[in-house]
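Progress against Task 2.4 (sequence-to-structure conversion) is shown through the following example record, which the project officer requested during the mid-term review.
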Amino acid sequence: MADAATEMDRLLGIMARLRDPETGCAWDVEQTFATIAPYTIEEAYEVADAIQKEDWAGLKGELGDLLFQSVFHARMAEEAGLFDFGDVARAISDKMVKRHPHVFGDEGGRTAEEQTVAWEAQKAKERGGRVLDGVALALPALKRAEKLQARAARVGFDWPNAGPVLDKVAEEAREVAEAEGLEAREEEVGDLLFVVANLARHLGVDPEAALRRANAKFERRFAAVEDGLRARGKSPAESTLAEMDALWDEVRAADKLRT
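Structure tokens generated for the chain above:
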């Protein structure tokens, strides 16, 4: 812990130097909460990416990058007289103690399931207001859809199982096919994506993680198609759709053989 405290102090000092208006880094000095926020989101995804790849050496670096984002925001807040990093650390510590009375209080042990229920009840009490209040607007739309639906489900507004959700997916797909005009198509595609996110929740699948895996699979397979074309002395731009489709089918077949 002594080493951690020392290194944390060092990091806070580095951030203060970087933001010094006279001797700091011009880029760091001109940043604001709004300009840094996209980097914060990006760093969180890079942490998730390292975990998915089981790149534990890389995870150490990515967690450092994410920590730096917290330090950056806290430093800007301190300069504005809002709060400082100590306030941030104190707030999260206080919250964790409050939300774990079975650990830090005298309520006794809880199972993981009991803790989940108690956690959500405590968060709802702290939020107050409406059921859907507090679901961050900055979340990726797919993840936010999942969270909105999960919140509604906690008060009983939900399908009983995945069957009716699958029926709804088919219904929304038909409405996409029937939609005319860009605005109507956008609305129907949005409805379809929203229901697919709900289907993932009912199946116990993280839709964001599932889509990331699908993206990675597409990238890998398309790279294999490019390699196949290159072996023929061609690029995708110089090839027909039929040629690329044929190679794509070969790559898919090879994948299925491996699994």
